[in-house]
Specification:
The protein is α+β, with helices and mostly antiparallel strands. It has 2 domains: 97 residues, Ribosome hibernation promotion factor-like (Double Stranded RNA Binding Domain, 2-Layer Sandwich); 81 residues, SHC Adaptor Protein (2-Layer Sandwich), CATH 3.30.505. Helices cover 30% and strands 38% of the residues. The strands form 2 sheets. It has a 5-stranded mixed sheet. Helix 1 packs parallel to helix 2. The radius of gyration is 19 Å and the shape is globular. Keywords: Cytoplasm, Translation regulation. This is Ribosome hibernation promoting factor. It is found in: Cytoplasm.
Length: 188
């Protein structure tokens, strides 16, 4: 597995990198047989250290975890525990997913935009109905079944996931509803 361990405005020593590779490697190998790469980023937020980890599996699924602590090793250990819990929860489905799918998840390119919010001018009228684009990025839309999309959304800790439905070749959306259930939008 390839590791990219970085720090945002903090120095990451060899001992911490070795600890991350050993612990995260053993956690991921327990549940997912074929991880491809892991990105671990450390940063400082006030008096706390923040650790964010993203593990890409060979099937195209991605698991993410994030933790905060006053010590950098404790932040990673908390992040690793969350990753362990996510992968353990989906272990059976991950293994079934490997058996059913012989090819990796197909990804379709798309553009992603960040629009400026109008929170400052809540009472005033906007000058135009066109929103202001403040950032443009490339994103990938996976081709998944509905069950795989729900699992991917929960593994990533995301509130919503746009995907191409393998059964119908149309774009679909799964999202977490306020009542805790999962919603699925399947256009006609």
């Amino acid at each position: 597995m390839l590791y990219q361990i970085t720090g945002k405005h903090i120095d990451i020593g060899e001992a911490l990198q070795t600890h991350v590779k050993t612990e995260l490697g053993s956690t991921v190998e327990k549940y997912a047989g074929r991880p491809t790469d892991a990105n671990v980023t450390f940063s400082k937020s006030g008096h706390e250290f923040v650790c964010e980890a993203t593990v890409h599996l060979s099937t195209g699924l991605t698991a993410q975890a994030k933790a905060h602590a006053t010590e950098i090793y404790a932040a990673f250990d908390g992040c690793n525990e969350k990753m362990d819990k996510q992968l353990r929860r989906y272990k059976r489905r991950l293994k079934d997913h490997h058996r059913e799918r012989s090819e990796p998840v197909e990804l379709m390119g798309a553009s992603s935009y960040i629009l400026a919010s109008d929170k400052d001018d809540a009472e005033s009228e906007p000058e135009t109905l066109q929103p202001m684009i403040i950032a443009e990025m490339e994103t990938r839309i996976p081709s998944l079944s509905v069950g795989e999309a729900v699992m991917q959304m929960e593994l990533a800790g995301a509130p919503v996931l746009v995907f191409r439905n393998e059964g119908k070749d149309g774009l679909n959306v799964v999202y977490r509803r306020e009542d805790g259930n999962i919603g699925w939008i399947d256009p006609n």
